[in-house]
Structure formats: structure tokens, C-alpha cells
Design goal:
- It is built from 22 helices and 22 strands.
- It is of the alpha+beta class.
- A hairpin with a 2-residue loop joins strand 11 and strand 12.
- The radius of gyration is 31 Å and the shape is globular.
- The protein binds adenosine-5'-triphosphate and magnesium ion.
- The site of magnesium ion (MG) has 5 residues, from helix 2.
Length: 609
Amino acid sequence: MSQIHLLSPRLANQIAAGEVVERPASVVKELLENSLDAGATRLEVDVEQAGIKLIRIRDDGDGIEKDDLPLALSRHATSKIYELEDLEAVASLGFRGEALASISSVSRLTLTSRRICSEHAWQVQTEGRDMSAQLSPAAHPQGTTVEMRDLFFNTPARRKFLKTENTEFKHLEEVVKRLALSRFDVAFQLKHNGRVIHQLKPASVKAEQERRVAAVCGPAFVDQSLHVDMNAEASGLSLRGWIGLPTFSRSQADLQYFFVNGRMIRDKLVTHAVRQAYADVLFHGRHPAYVLYLELDPALVDVNVHPTKHEVRFREGRLVHDFIFRSIHRVIGEIRPDASNVPALQELTAVEATTEQKFDQQYMPLHQPREISGVNEQIAPYGQLHQNRSFSQPSSSGFSASPPVVSFESDEMAEVPPLGYAVAQLHGIYVLSQNKEGLVLVDMHAAHERIVYERLKLACEAEGVRSQPLLVPVSVALSVREADAAEEFDELFEKLGFELARMGEETIVIRQVPVTLAKANVEQLLRDVLSDMMMFGSSRRLEEHMNELLATMACHGAVRANRQLTLPEMNSLLRDMEATERSGQCNHGRPTWTQLSMGELDKLFMRGQ
Ligand SMILES: Nc1ncnc2c1ncn2[C@@H]1O[C@H](COP(=O)(O)OP(=O)(O)OP(=O)(O)O)[C@@H](O)[C@H]1O
Ligand SMILES: [Mg+2]
């Protein structure tokens, strides 16, 4: 007797549903994506009991033809692609023709729709083993409403995996947020148990878009983020959006939204590129926050990697990785107290004498005259200004018996540098400075540490990497693939200061290493670098390792707490900060300075209230 038989359509769909429909949130994702693919401009999401009891989604999109309605609910039925070539450059969010079939096999589903040209709407409902759909006329404006009730009513085992209503709703809300961030031009409404949770108007200009980002990610993110807008004309890549300041880092990777051609994805290559860009400025174990949009030729990205389409595969992975890294690295590098105001300073620092001098300078106590830095020239005029103004010179020990009186005449205000002029030092830790806005507080050790660190890095770059032969060459056993990669990237390793030689199918010998890494575990480092290179086409591990060493040196070289600085020394520090990349954070990601505006101070003292 034959034992093999065809599965019923419902059972086949229920099995397939396991991949797509995990929880109410996945249903909302699929339905909203369908609405967006249909060109909807307004989306209403109505859920009860976190979507387990009811999910109703109404759109004003193109609608579905009467005869297509039953098809829409069957498996492998789609209007979005015709042949394989279409899949290779697919621009719609859906294309598998599976979502509605899957959802309707594990719930009670009603689909009501009306095309613009139709006299009235039609409705299909499914229930029962064979999933045959019943058509009936209905009242509905142009567009589509999908009503899903009793999720997993017929698959109790799946139902058991659902979490509390609270958790399920969090997931569901997250899906709506992601899609709201992906399409600023579409209005979104989310209601839970009759209560409006989100109401988002279409946002066309930047200010409106930032308002939406604030509504979704919290206003603090928008306040403490930088705008990214990068284009690589040659490769046709562009990256736009917002990245959180390093000081706005999070304990979890929960504020990371990355869209590729409008599709939210989670991708190892992307995460890696972003992390690298933040490598130097993030507190250990913290996660950056970002909302970023990558646009590229759809033919260069494969979205058909996973049923939920959360993952993608880039055809030019290295190029994309490099572009994301560079773009973010550049924006972060520009963080400094209002960089636009200090071009002259930047130029001055750039023509600093030789590397040796720079190195010397790192460890030069702050109170010595700092001739090499070039910043000194800026202090001289300050000295004169100082006398002309109604400053009373404080004693060099920070707090003078009569605190200094500093006031700017209005025409002098225009010349005040972003971080202002120092007025005092507090407990040997903080520098107090007055600028246009009010009071600036600087953590002098943190700030100086960053300055020293950035200079050490520059000096290292200028000198190139110096290598040193190993007394006893290290032989490393690798897989054939790894050894091949080591050979392929030979030039790169050379640039990094390594000399490698292939000694057999599965052996590489390290003959020479960068001086700075002579004491490191070079074997482990080589393995890690190779694995990065094979996965992402590049590796910054060596650089990171060297940077770690430099950071330690910087930390020891930086001015310690409890050192009394003179006013010119403090001003010199402020000017250096203005001219230094990433000077807003110390090497561990802590902020180096903060501003208290006159308004904030007035509030503290209830002035003018
Ligand atoms: N809200 C809607 N408005 C208009 N047409 C819709 C809507 N929802 C579904 N459809 C139609 O029903 C078809 C089936 O939808 P379904 O979500 O099952 O598959 P898909 O979107 O084509 O692919 P995927 O399984 O990848 O989502 C779609 O191709 C589309 O033609
Ligand atoms: Mg779909």
C-alpha cells in the first residue's frame, strides 16, 4: 500500500507559516508591507490583546481585483514578480507570494478590497481544511482591509510560544516603528484596545522627518545625533540618516535601524562596519544608536536570503562595508566644539613641525610654554585681549580670592571661540570657561587625553608602521582557505607591517611584525585578522590594537587631576580641543565638556520668572 500522499493545502501552508508567522508582530509586518507595496499613503493598524485576538489593517492603496481575491490567499501567488530576472532587481517589499496564505492558514482571515475602477468592494473569508475562499460583495472605499482574528487558534502548540500581552505588543509596536521610519511619506496610526498609541503624519521636509524620528526613537536621540548625508557617485551608493553621538550610547543594541533600499534589515556586515566606525569613541560594551538609510542599485543586493527578508546579501560586500565605515567615521571625526568656527586653528595644527617634536610634546607638562603646538599664536592675542577687557587676573592656582570678573562687550562676542575663555579651575579637575552661550565645564584630564591620543595616532600614521623581525619566526597552522586568504592579502599585511610566508598547504610563517605589536599574541591576531578579511574584505583589528596601546600611552601622558593650570594653559587646552577630531569624548567615550547656557543658569536661580 502506498505510504506517500500529498499534504492538504492548509497543512502545507501551516508548515510554511512556521517560517513567516512567528507572532502577531510578524503578521503586522507582512500586512503593512503589502499595503506599502500597493502604494498606500495612509495606514491604520487596529489591534486587540496585542494582536492575538485581532489585527485589522486598513489602507488606501490600489486594491485587489475581485477575481484575484481568492488567489491572493493561495500559496505561490503574487502580482510582484513574473520571472527569475524580476527577483534579481526586486523593488517591492514582498515577492514570495506566501504571506497571506501562511497567515490565513493559522487564523481566521477576512480580506476586503476595492479597486479604484470597481463599483463596490468584494470580500473573501477563509476557514476550513481546504482553504476554499468564499466571495461576497461588501462596502469599502478604495483600498484594502485585512482582518485577522484568533491567531494560532488551530495550532495550539504555536500559541503556547506566545509571550505576555505586554511583550507581544512591544514586538508589534516595534514593527510599526520600523516601517514608519522606512516611509516618511506615509501616515501611520496604531491603536491598541481602542487607544491611539501612535499617530504619525506624513513628513516631507527634514524638520518633520526629525519630528517623526523623535516620536519613534525618543526626542533625546534626535537632540544628540549627527546628520549623515554621504554619496559615492562612482559606485552609486548613498547613506543618509542620523547617528547618535558617542555619548548617547546604549546598554543594548535596541536603537539601531538600518534600511537598505527602504527595507529594514539586520546584517552582520553592516553592524560590523558601524561598530568599527565607533571603535575609538564608545565606552566598552556600549552600543551606538542610529537610523540609517543605504540606497544602492537593487541589482547589487540579494533580498531573497531568508523568509522574513531580515537579512540581505550584498554582491559587493567589501565596497559596501568600506563605504558605511568611512561615511560614519568621517561624521564622528568631525565632532568638536563647533568645528566650522576654527579653520585657522586646524590649519595651524596641521603644519606642526616633525613627528619627534609632536611626540615630545605629548609628555611635555602643560605648564611649559607650548611653542610647537602653533596654538600658542592664538593665545598671544588672547593675552592682549585679556588686558583690554575688564578681566581681573586670577591667581594661577585656579581659584583666586577674588574671583575673576569677565564680561564681553557685544562686539567682542563675535570673536569668542566656541569653548570661550577660561575663568577658573575647580578642585584641580574641571576647567570653567565663559563663552557666548554661558558657562562651559571641561573635564581637563579627559579632554587632554583625547588630544594626546589623536596626536599620537597622527604621528604614527605619518611615520608609517615600523616593522621588526621576529627572533624566532612563528609558524601558524591554518585551514587551506585561511592560508589562501593570507596570500591573497599579502600586500595589505605588508602595509600593516607584517611579513608572512606560505610554508605549506596549511602553514603560514610570520617573520616580521609591527614594532608596536611585538609583545602581542601575533598568532591570535593573525587568525582574527584573517577571519575579518575573509568575511568583510577588510580588518581594522591591527589598527585597533595599536590604537589601544596609544590610548594607554595617552591616558598616562595626559594631565592628571589635581594639577593646577594657569589661565593661558587652560586656554591653550580649550583651543586644542577646538582643533582636535572627536574631542567631544575621551578615549573611553566619556564626554569631555558640557555647556550650561545662561538660560539654564537663569532657570536654576529662577531669574526673570
Ligand atoms: N493591501 C493590499 N493591497 C493590494 N494588494 C494586496 C494587498 N495585500 C496583498 N495584496 C495582493 O495579494 C498578493 C499576495 O500577497 P502576499 O503577501 O501573500 O504575497 P506577496 O506580497 O506577493 O509576497 P510575500 O509573501 O513576499 O509577502 C500580493 O502579491 C498582492 O497582489
Ligand atoms: Mg506580502
